[in-house]
Amino acid sequence: MSTATRTDWQTRTRPTDADGWIGRAAEVAGVLATDAAARDKAGATPYAEVQLLKDSGLVTLLGPAAHGGGGQDWPTAYRVVREIAKADGSIGQLLGYHYLWNWAARLVGTREQWEQVEADAARNQWFFGGAVNPRDNDVVVRDEGDSITFTGHKSFSTGSKVSDVTVLEGVFEGTDRHVFAIVPSDSEGLTFHDDWDNIGQRLTESGSVTLDGVTVPWAAAAGYVDKEFRPRVYNTLNVPTIQLVFVAFYLGIAAGALETAAVYTRHKSRSWLHGGFDAAVDEPHVIDTYGDLTAKLWAAEALADTVAAEGQRLHEDPDAVTEQARGEFEVRVAAVKARATDVALEVTSRIFEVTGARSTASAEGLDRFWRNVRTHTLHDPVAYKRREVGRHVLTAELPEPTWYS
């Protein structure tokens, strides 16, 4: 990976608006794209890739401008994730999860807590990871007087070894009270296991983690004051927000697949010998397929942008978020998640119909797009997203806030 562009970023004026940051993300994607297929095959820990995100300023996109952050909003963050995912789905996921975990203090914590976290994160360019897999038994949290300890195991911890800080989640022993806390990723008792070996999203550092009495001061227990949690409806927006992050990198991967395939078709695909056309780009079925897939992708992107704007209105006035507003927003998120899943899977599998048999060569790496989408879209069954939409249409039922809705 070239370092020339990184050095140039450090001497240039940072973007000041959404278009500028999206343009910066496209530049980063250009660097990532040069060896994306090779890095996917190697499966090495993406230290250099995360440093690229830091050097470009993208890690502080949502941070307060007063402390060196980009001061941007969530619709811009989703667009940035899409741009990065066009080149590398794994790095797009890492960046998207980073944005969510960076924002988690604001979602769950007190004003004093999240202001401190966001200021420190922006000044120090922290990269966030998270050990918050809800499918595992909850990590046990114990009250040790002035501190609390986290003990247990999570089978997924995206960002693990490349993160500066990690968001932990657990339940106080003998209760149903959950607690989040942000700790340095090199904290004593926090052990990341190098066991992420899946067919897609290979560079996300999503292996398991063991927590063996990780100690956190009570002051860092997000949203707790005098050992009591102060709930808000806004706390429950963590799921719709991360689901829109998923949408962003699904659509980014699909766009990257379509762009990469189009280059291949223009320069490498051969027309069918019995089709009567000299070039693949002139074959009717090829033209039709690209038109069909592009139209579907553009429609899903437009819906994603619309729903992102709806969500931003909730982020701008957290204390005014009602259960009704939150539920209606989750229905919209469920709809776009379902469409993005279907479109991304279709695009990444059908590109081979218009690139030809030789495009399946391992050296081309076109399969990485489908592998990445297929792997992550299994995160939670899309049928349940469609069900949320259907029930709301038929009975006005709002989804109950859970770890997945």
UniProtKB/TrEMBL annotation:
GO MF terms held by the record: 3-methylbutanoyl-CoA dehydrogenase activity; dioxygenase activity; flavin adenine dinucleotide binding
UniProt keyword Membrane present: yes
Coiled-coil boundaries: none
Residue ranges constituting the Acyl-CoA dehydrogenase/oxidase N-terminal domain according to the UniProt record: 31-117
Keyword Kinase: no
Domain called Acyl-CoA dehydrogenase C-terminal: residue spans: 244-379
Keyword terms: Dioxygenase, Flavoprotein, Membrane, Oxidoreductase, Transmembrane, Transmembrane helix
InterPro entries: Acyl-CoA_DH_C (IPR013107), Acyl-CoA_Oxase/DH_mid-dom_sf (IPR046373), AcylCo_DH-like_C (IPR036250), AcylCoA_DH/ox_N (IPR013786), AcylCoA_DH/ox_N_sf (IPR037069), AcylCoA_DH/oxidase_NM_dom_sf (IPR009100)
Superkingdom, taxonomy of origin: Bacteria
Chain segments annotated as transmembrane: 244-264
GO BP terms in the entry: L-leucine catabolic process
PANTHER family: ACYL-COA DEHYDROGENASE, ISOVALERYL-COA DEHYDROGENASE, MITOCHONDRIAL-RELATED
Protein's recorded name: Dibenzothiophene desulfurization enzyme C (DBT sulfur dioxygenase)
